[in-house]
Amino acid sequence: MAERYIRDLDLAYALSDVSCKRDPADETSVALNSMATELVLAGRVASAAELLEMAVRKDPHNPSLLNSLGFCLVPQDPKRALVDLERAYELGFTATMNLCNRLYALLRLGKYASVLELADRAVAEWGELDQGRLILWDFMASSPVVKRSACPRCYVRDIALYVANNYGDDASRRRWRDFAKGHKA
């Protein structure tokens, strides 16, 4: 094997990347998600979606980017958003924000039974759901509005209770009312 010259600095960076498991693709994903979040919070959801669509074209198997893109698309194109959100989930993005985003997309599509089914599955994993505050869509608002600091467990509970009360049968209404009483914020 022939030897080749490697600059000391290049070798140091390479060793540093390996030792700290640095992933430049992941760092790019984090940076793009951060920029998209800032755009969303500034009310520029379409711009955030455009940024994320470009990123997903370059990295179509990145579950974090797919989840963020799905989040941005839910208000205008919930059907496409749901495809991206489900793909993100299949690729391993199992964070509670993905669950909340899928619930909101299903609600926007009028798939009320699917909302309750997905929420029922979440109840089985209740202890595993994130408790930190998230940026989520306000499902109660008449037009899409971002909630800057939403409780994800509360969101799952409340969207299921809303759907059960407005579109469910007596059994689902009772079930979700009882669940809500036992699982306050």
Key descriptive features of the protein:
185 residues, mainly alpha, 9 helices, 66% helix, disordered N terminus
Explain this structure to me?
The protein has 185 residues and is mainly alpha-helical. The protein is 66% helix and 5% strand. The chain is built from 9 helices and 2 strands, in the order αααααααββαα. Strands 1-2 form a two-stranded antiparallel ribbon. A hairpin with an 8-residue loop joins strand 1 and strand 2. Helix 4 packs antiparallel against helix 5 and helix 5 packs antiparallel against helix 6. The longest helix has 18 residues. The radius of gyration is 20 Å and the shape is globular.
Q: Mind sketching the topology for me?
A:
Blueprint: H1 8-19, H2 24-41, H3 45-58, H4 63-73, H5 78-90, H6 96-108, H7 112-124, E1 134-137, E2 146-150, H8 152-167, H9 170-182
Antiparallel strand pairs: 1-2
Helix pairs in contact: 2-3, 2-4, 3-4, 4-5, 5-6, 6-7, 6-8, 7-8, 8-9
Mean pLDDT: 86
Number of strands: 2
* Backbone shape: globular
Distance between the termini: 64 Å
Lateral arrangement of strands in the main beta sheet: 1-2
Instruction: Count helical runs.
Output: 9
Report the β-strand fraction as a percent range.
under 5%
Low-confidence runs: 1-6
Radius of gyration: 20 Å
Helix residue percentage: 55-70%
Give me the strand/helix succession: HHHHHHHEEHH
Q: What structural class results from the helix and strand content?
A: mainly alpha
Q: Main sheet, how many strands, which sense, barrel?
A: 2 strands, antiparallel
